[in-house]
Specification:
Number of domains: 1
CATH class: Alpha Beta
Helix content: 10-25%
Number of strands: 12
Radius of gyration: 15 Å
Strand content: 25-35%
Largest sheet: 9 strands, mixed
Oligomer: single chain
Number of helices: 5
Distance between the termini: 25 Å
CATH topology: Rossmann fold
CATH superfamily: Class I glutamine amidotransferase (GATase) domain
Low-confidence stretches: 203-216
CATH architecture: 3-Layer(aba) Sandwich
């Protein structure tokens, strides 16, 4: 059975994500040490809250997450977890993991935070991706005031739009995926996306990632 490590770094949304993963058949372990992360078949980084505070709590585990990514262990970050895959944020001080170069910026919309359902539309610039097969999007649940701005825009897998402002809904670099929404709160379509992520956990994990380029 697939062994998924959900990283506990002292922020919210830990158990709802863990429960969603279990519904898809994964063997879920809630972990908070580098050795546990490095022993995982797949890693999930959930989270809600402030980037600066979360980055400080996550810092002792950042090297282990980076090494797991280098070993092609599939990683999924959701909401704040996606933002922490980036280098820095306008929300607060502290360094993110930096697996996806770029910065997190404030959402420029009439109503912030964005709370509720929104369409997720595949970008179509990279060809098919396992999380969005056949260019199929979904309607997902959001709760965010900040969004990600990658340095390499080819890392963007999907977009969402609020009040006429388009922002990245999902990104990917090698075997690391990020989704700005909450798949665990997005009903059956969200669980479907989680299952598709779990399908990537298996052969190929634990082999070195390419050293150049943002795609996979």
């Amino acid at each position: 059975m697939t062994r998924i490590s959900v990283i506990d770094y002292g922020v919210g949304n830990l158990f709802s994500m863990s429960n969603a993963l279990r519904k898809t058949g994964a063997n879920v372990e809630i972990v908070n040490t580098p050795d546990e992360i490095l022993a995982a078949d797949g890693v999930v980084l959930p989270g809600v809250g402030n980037f600066g505070a979360a980055a400080g709590k996550l810092n002792p585990l950042a090297d282990a997450i980076t090494n797991a990514a280098k070993n092609r262990v599939p990683i999924l970050g959701s909401c704040l977890g996606m933002q922490l895959l980036f280098s820095s944020s306008d929300e607060g001080e502290g360094e993110g993991i930096g697996l996806i170069p770029g910065r997190v910026v404030r959402l420029e919309a009439a109503t912030v935070p964005q709370m509720g359902w929104n369409d997720v539309v595949p970008a179509g610039n990279r060809g098919p991706d396992p999380l969005f097969p056949d260019g199929t999007g979904l309607t997902a649940y959001y709760a965010n005031s900040f969004v990600c701005a990658p340095e390499d825009w080819t890392t963007i897998l999907a977009w969402s739009d609020v009040d006429g402002t388009r922002f990245p809904a999902s990104v990917r670099a090698h075997n690391t995926w990020g989704v700005q929404f909450h798949p665990e709160k997005s009903s059956a379509p969200g669980l479907g996306l989680i299952r598709r992520f779990l399908d990537q956990v298996g052969p190929g994990s634990g082999t070195p990632a390419p050293t150049e380029g943002g795609g996979a």
